[in-house]
Amino acid sequence: MDKIEFKDLKPEGRFLKYVRIDTQSDPSSESVPSTEKQKNLSRLLVEELIELGLTNVELDENGYTYATLPSNSDKQVPTIFFCSHVDTSPDCSGTNVSPVVHENFNGSPILFSNDPALKLTTEAHPALLDQLGNDIITADGTTLLGADNKAGVAEIMAAMEYLVTHPEIKHGTVKVLFTPDEEIGRGVDHVNVKKLGADFGYTIDGETLGHIENETFSADSATLVIYGVSTHPGFAKNKMKSAIKIASAIIDNLPKTTLTPETTDHKDGFIHPVQITGGIEKCTVHFILRDFRTEKLAEMANLIEMVTKKVIAEFSGAKFELQIQKQYRNMKEVLVNHPLVTEIAVEAVESLGITPLLSSIRGGTDGSRLSFMGLPCPNIFAGEHAFHSKLEWVSVQDMQKAAATIVRIAELWESKS
After folding, report:
1. Distance from the CA of 199 to the CA of which of 34, 100, 225, 239 falls in 20 to 30 A?
2. Are residues 61 and 172 in the same domain?
């Protein structure tokens, strides 16, 4: 395989253009996609994909972008796809993003022109120590940057351009998929698997250089509704059963030193109350349940139910309903049956002189659900860091290496066919 010059892949130019387009998704919206403005970036991507010469380029009514890079090989090569999401997190403003390039990072704190209180340091972000001499991109302190996941979008686009302009690199059919609403858990709700027409794929949405994530949490949500007994507070003695207080007591009786996000790491799972709403008569608590072992989710749901029954027994007349909804499952349950998908990613990273690191992600990706839709799909590093915050950053050099990894993956699938 020929040596790839990382600097010849230029995702940074596209990235600086893409992040200026507001694509924030909205969890309170019931529309598809959740915000129409996500399509502003998608429409630009369609234009650029057509200019590159890809075929079957389409932005559908649900905000999904599809494209095909035709095979240039005489072999029968599995069809692979690369996927990133266009939306940015609702946790931090994505309006009027103004990216700043900090060239030749020397380890000193990175300051933000529009918020003097913000500071990006190696002490708080030790991953920066691996970036000495590199060019770091941040926002200006008023918004997030949008590297999650516009870095991945730019890297895929740069890789497609490289493959088009370097026909000597043999590859099979490569599909491109850009999704909306990943940040609010709806990223693949409306993917047309038949239209995508792929066998295997890779999401480009990981963090540190060289990381390949082939394992995610399995995830369920739990909705607990408490029905209390309401009466006038001036005449409530021995009558009122406050749903708010019942819900509070239930949360207080759940584990505090284990099974919580703030007390777990590595392979430990958790029960996490994320929202509580309501009043005296009715109160609703929303939980997320997470563990790498899918069977543990049922144990967590049973624990919530057991604690609720114990607490509510002290409030005569009060009732409850508990509903569990499946969200996504650990992609490793699928990938273990298709080892070549991950092996090629590892080999691609190694061939570029980068140390690969197989890792588990304490979260999920579009690839989690795509894997269970018949499309085994690990997650590849995009270089994004401190996402969902005003401190978000990415390095130009890491983006270039991510784009080169995409090229190499396509090349390896062809050479091994």
Report:
1. 34
2. yes
Q: Is residue 1 part of a domain?
A: no
pLDDT (tens digit per residue) in 136-173: 999 999 999 999 999 999 999 999 999 999 999 999 99
Whether 5 is catalytic is no
Residue of 12, 48, 87, 392 marked catalytic: 87
CB 146, CB 97: distance < 8 Å? yes
Nearest alpha-carbon partner for 380 in 210, 161, 216, 217: 210
Whether omega before 11 lies within 30 degrees of 0, making that bond cis, reads: no
Q: Which domain holds residue 265?
A: 218-328
Q: Which of these is catalytic: 182, 199, 220, 392?
A: 182
| 66-101 pLDDT, tens digit each | 999 999 999 999 999 999 999 999 999 999 999 999
Partner residues linked to 300 by β-bridges: none
Whether residues 356 and 285 share a domain: the answer is no
Token match 């019942």: residue? 246
Report the distance separating Cα 332 and Cα 359, nearest Å.
11
The token pair at 223 is 């909705």
* Claim to verify: residue 88 and residue 176 sit in the same structural domain: yes
Instruction: State the Cα–Cα distance between residues 151 and 32, nearest whole angstrom.
Output: 23
* Residue entry with tokens 């994505």: 94
Strands 211-216 and 357-361: parallel
Beta bridge partners of 68: 55, 175
| Cα–Cα distance, 38 to 35 (Å, whole number) | 6
Name the phi and psi angles at 381, rounded to 5.
-60, 140
Contact present, 229 and 407 (Cβ < 8 Å): no
What is the pTM for the complete model shown?
0.91
Range list of H helices, 273-359? 295-312, 332-335, 339-351
